[in-house]
Design brief:
This protein is of the alpha+beta class. The protein is built from eight helices and six strands. A four-stranded antiparallel β-sheet has the order 2-3-5-6, with no helix packed on it. Strands 1-4 form a two-stranded parallel sheet.
Length: about 400
């Protein structure tokens, strides 16, 4: 019976193969993104906690007391159980400010998660298209090497009959050795990019070609997700100042307490049939003086709000400049494609002509090697330009505040 190699008996493990969309799906499960998800969930739980804290609360209590000396008002032993229902009627506007603040914090965490996802997507897209560009350069360099090897073989035959000189052959051999170094360098670059994708996706991945980014050249309509998150953070800081101001105002609280008690006297004359009581208490508290502590707290909160507002204004101006820069880079990348197409056509025509002349002995091998390098460099540069346009599309989507992942096709 013929034995099959082990690679056919067992599947190969350790590599996740996927296109750009699959890589982004993997990246959204990494620990960095998961951390932002936990922060959003924490903000949501905190908001629920604050809002629930203002609902009516019910508490139970019980105690048993032993007194060394009894009198009419102090029994020898007593047992008490109580249930208290309490509700804050007014707390100087703190409740409304806290509700608004928590809503802003939840929105901020939501936008922050979207921002982190977009940032990670942008990193993955850059690595993906950088990998494809490097791979194209590697393929062009390998094709160049094949041409050089064929030319070396031809010159070796001519040298054996004295048709060429030794230095002409050595120049070809030198170019082959340099090409080998270039191939090793490009392979090392591919390995580094794979390592980057591994920590972004938490898996060792194998790149599939064919992915692109759908993009319509339209005007910017909304802010980036990180700017939207910062806007909500500013709203939260504003509400923090309102919370601090609420300490200047009175608070009103109502409590309804139902109690059952049992008093035991050694002197039966002091016994009472009364065993329960219901009390309703409306309380008011107003801090009139605290040596300026509340005012200082208000000032600190207002300064923090101003600091956040200034940061937001700065980041908005910075984002606007970043968008314009990204748009210009995108237009430049489009122009590079046409330029590199023209360069490739010219270099291919030049190479075909120089190759014929070189084989006829009309031009020297220096001219031939230059034409050969220009041809394969032009091929790699065109592929790099095509990949750069795709990446610049992703950058523009990021700057326009759109979800990058949804544009992958």
């Amino acid at each position: 019976m013929k034995k099959l190699p082990l690679m056919f008996l067992f599947p190969l493990f350790g590599f996740a193969s996927g296109n750009l969309g699959e890589l982004l799906n993997l990246a959204e499960q990494n620990h960095y993104v998961q951390s932002s998800r936990y922060q959003l969930e924490s903000a949501q739980e905190k908001a629920y906690s604050v809002k629930s804290g203002y609902l009516p609360s019910l508490s139970l209590g019980a105690n048993q007391t032993y007194n060394k000396e009894e009198n009419m008002f102090t029994p020898e032993k007593s047992r008490t159980g109580s249930a208290t229902l309490s509700f804050m009627l007014y707390d100087g506007g703190k409740r409304e400010a806290q509700f608004s603040q928590q809503n802003a914090l939840v929105k901020s965490a939501t936008f922050s998660l979207s921002s982190v996802q977009n940032n990670v997507s942008l990193d993955v897209i850059y690595a993906y298209f950088n990998y494809l560009s490097t791979q194209a350069s590697l393929e062009s360099t390998q094709q160049k090497k094949e041409q050089l090897l064929a030319e070396r073989h031809r010159l070796e035959q001519f040298l054996s009959v004295g048709a060429v000189t030794e230095d002409e052959l050595q120049k070809i051999i030198s170019s082959i050795e340099q090409t080998n170094v270039d191939i090793l360098t490009l392979k090392n670059t591919l390995n580094n990019i794979s390592n980057t994708l591994e920590y972004l996706t938490a898996e060792r991945v194998e790149i599939k070609q064919g992915s692109s980014i759908l993009f319509q050249d339209v005007q910017k309509e909304q802010q980036r997700f990180d700017i939207l998150a910062l806007e909500e953070s500013v709203k939260s800081a504003q509400e923090e100042a309102n919370i601090a101001k609420s300490a200047h105002l009175p608070t009103f609280k109502i409590e309804d307490t139902y109690s059952r008690f049992k008093n035991e006297y050694a002197n039966n004359a002091w016994e009472s049939d009364k065993e329960n009581q219901n009390s309703i208490v409306l309380s008011m508290q107003w801090k009139l003086f605290d040596f300026g502590s509340t005012s200082a707290n208000v000032q600190a909160a207002q300064k923090n709000y101003l600091a956040k507002s200034s940061e937001l204004a700065y980041e908005k101006h910075k984002a606007k400049a970043s968008y314009l820069s990204a748009y210009n880079s995108y237009r430049t990348a489009l122009a590079k494609i046409e330029a590199n197409k023209a360069k490739l056509r010219a270099s291919e025509m030049t190479y075909d002509l120089v190759k014929k002349k070189f084989q006829q002995g009309i031009v020297n091998n220096v001219t031939y090697l230059d034409a050969l390098s220009e041809k394969f460099d032009a091929q790699a540069q065109l592929q790099t330009a095509l990949n750069e346009v795709e990446y610049q599309k992703a950058v523009l989507l990021y700057e326009m505040g759109k979800e990058i992942k949804g544009a992958i096709q």
